[in-house]
Specification:
Blueprint: H1 2-20, H2 28-48, H3 56-80
Helix pairs in contact: 1-2, 1-3, 2-3
Main location: membrane
Protein name: GlsB/YeaQ/YmgE family stress response membrane protein
Family: Belongs to the UPF0410 family.
């Protein structure tokens, strides 16, 4: 059940990141996938930077959103090159 919630929160965060990063998104489905990957990426990166948002679904959403925004920015830079 936790995995399903994780995937749903990651997908929602990816969609929102695509909305925020206008022009760098790749469509709804790909942005959702980036959100799920961003949840893993943010969960790995943010604690190493000393940034934490607490536990629970809200903390996971914020972490996934930040991770997805970072990934969309990186992918956008690579795509332009």
């Amino acid at each position: 059940m936790h995995l399903l919630i994780f995937l749903l929160i990651g997908a929602l965060a990816g969609w929102l990141a695509g909305v925020v990063m206008k022009g760098r998104g790749f469509g709804v489905v790909i942005n959702m996938v980036v959100g799920v990957i961003g949840a893993f990426f943010g969960g790995w990166l943010l604690p190493r930077l000393g940034i934490g948002f607490g536990g629970g679904d809200v903390g996971l959403f914020i972490t996934a959103f930040i991770g997805a925004v970072i990934l969309l920015a990186i992918i956008g830079l690579i795509k332009k090159a």
